[in-house]
Amino acid sequence: MPYKDIILEKKDHIATLTINRPEKMNAMSLETREEVIAALTEVGQDDGVRVLILTGAGDRAFCAGVDVSVMSSAIAGQAPVPTRRQITYRMGYQVSLFRKLRVPTIAAINGVAAGMGVSFIAACDIRIASEKARFACSWVNRGLVPDGASTFLLPQIIGIEKSLELFYTGDIINADEALRIGLVGRVVPHGDLMSTATALAEKIGAGPPIPIEMAKYGVYKGLESDIEGALDYENYAVKVCTGTEDYKEGVTAFMEKRKPQFKGR
After folding, report:
1. pLDDT of the residue at 142
2. What is the mean pLDDT of residues 35-48?
3. Would you state the pLDDT for residue 78?
4. Computed from CA positions of residues 115, 112, 93, 207, in that sequence, does the dihedral angle turn out positive or negative?
5. How confident is the model at residue 101, as a pLDDT?
6. What is the phi/psi pair of residue 226, to 5°?
7. Where does the pLDDT of residue 90 fall: very low under 50, low under 70, confident under 90, or very high at 90 and above?
8. Rounded to the nearest 10 degrees, what angle do helices 116-123 and 93-100 cross at?
9. What is the value of pTM for the model shown?
């Protein structure tokens, strides 16, 4: 489908999803949400994609949350009549799709991540921040409770106490503080952000996609399981992997002292 509020690019097993509303600091409207859902569905169905990078257009913002003009229009009773799909979609549904996506996800945080923007990065597997990035759990400043599954996701990353502090205060933190508390994995110069994210995506994309996808599923499923459940899943996953061509290629390449060429089969 043609996209208006986002850009979806695919190259060499890497898909890059860019939220493209820089004039609105890449804030989310209902239409933007639907496009993100459609793009993630498209990526999930494309066997040629092995990694997804999520970022925002421009230099100011990654995603500044939900478009405040949408909120004010709703308060004033001026919001357009929503479609049935917009009514029935669970609020924040698009966030869960990042976790459910079978391929690894990398958030390349180019600027402000606030509200739903924090939820997006928390749902990604790996988070790389520009030195210009800023983060705000700003729901409380709008008289709102955190949404986008942030009450579930953020404590997994930075712990309960720090999550609640940010939820209670709505404080803005910079990239260095985000690194210190573990919200992001690394901070890079602003000009190096996309090249760093792409280099990591290329490294992951060169690996065998089947065990990588199964490792992602196993880690997140393990959050809801126990050690016995983890062992059961790992035993199943090993049996699946040892039946693939990539497994044979990996072992053969090791014995022949060469770099393996994985085909995703």
Report:
1. 87
2. 95
3. 56
4. negative
5. 95
6. -135, 180
7. low
8. 20
9. 0.90
* Same-domain check for residues 25 and 68: yes
Alpha carbons 151 and 146: distance in angstroms, whole number:
7
CATH of the domain at 86: 3.90.226.10
How many secondary structure helices (H) and strands (E) does the chain include?
12, 10
Residue 30: the pLDDT is 87
**Size of the chain in residues:** 265
How many domains does the structure of the chain reveal? 2
Q: Please report how the helices 227-241 and 209-222 are oriented relative to each other, as an axis angle in degrees rounded to 10.
A: 170
Asked if pLDDT for residue 81 goes beyond 70, the answer is no
Rounded to 10°, the helix 245-255/209-222 angle is 110
For residue 171, give its domain range. 6-205
What single letter denotes the amino acid at residue 153?
L
Q: What percent of the chain shows pLDDT beyond 70?
A: 90
- C-alpha 8/C-alpha 54 separation (Å) is 10
The beta strand positions in 110-231, using DSSP E, are 112-114, 126-130, 134-136, 172-174, 186-188
SS3 content of the chain, % helix, strand, coil (to 5): 50, 15, 30
Neighbour count for residue 255 (Cβ, 10 Å): 8
